[in-house]
């Protein structure tokens, strides 16, 4: 029997590069995978059911919502997109490391729902840079400094809710750091 | 009576800078606003109901879903976040330009649901740069070129669904271009 794989929640503010980091992590190992999402939108030319998406009807999707089958889902206008809990179970049972890329808004709550997951917060380089700048220089206008410090502080509150925090100063270093975290779990 | 305000759907792939562009647009005019979202999560210290979010119970949120009150909503674990159609109506009735920042996945569908809206696609600088690089040089490995062209082509398909397409090569220029689009509507 294979060892159960782990679940990584990858999050961070917009612009932190979480999707790019995800793409690079997947390239590093066949064992690191993304879940296939369920959607009610029509398949585009070349898209395959079960590979690009699981394509289902609105009725079927709403039935899955009723059954509490999704760890997260979104509805845009009248199209749904969601991630099945069973899809995560299927992949981890197969020994895969499953990465969930989640907006900052949702990451803490998903961590609460999957306590065995490991959450990684990616800090955009600019936040680190600006912190250095605020500390070491004094060239910004008062309101600029104020607004930037407020952003940085806001980022810091979010960071406290995560198991790991990695700065994306250099993409390769950031990806390697997260890869090491994955291998150490 | 005030003129009815317009609705702008701001989208683009992750890393295109749509949230940064949004922040800058809001700074340029008091008339450009974001909707206040509804959420079932608990307010944090300092957050005000009706300003930061409309804080409601899960029961209330699900009642609003039943009534088809949301243009978009998301559920992370057991917390909901959503944008009310009535909130958009309230702001446009007041003459405001409402900006909805939407993932690429959802933008086309929201445009379909609000046909009078104007959709703007922000192209990340790297896509433009890489296109130039692919065309003018030949230094990448075959698989790199292939994967990059595939990304670029994918971006291009999305672009066709939008009313406007603006490259975010230089933030200030990009913001000014979108500001002109808003003023021309």
CATH class of chain A: Alpha Beta
Global geometry of chain A: globular
Q: State the total count of DSSP E strands of chain A.
A: 9
What low-confidence regions of chain A span 5 or more consecutive residues with pLDDT below 50?
none
Oligomer: homodimer
Task: Describe the strand arrangement of the main beta sheet of chain A, using strand numbers.
Answer: 2-7-1-8-9
Instruction: Compute the CA-based radius of gyration of chain A.
Output: 19 Å
Helix fraction bin of chain A: 40-55%
pLDDT averaged residue by residue of chain A: 86
- How big a fraction of the residues of chain A is strand? 15-25%
- CATH homologous superfamily placement of chain A: P-loop containing nucleotide triphosphate hydrolases
CATH architecture of chain A: 3-Layer(aba) Sandwich
Element string of chain A (H = helix, E = strand): EHEEEHEEHEHEHHEH
Would you tell me the structural class of the helices and strands of chain A?
alpha/beta
Number of domains of chain A: 1
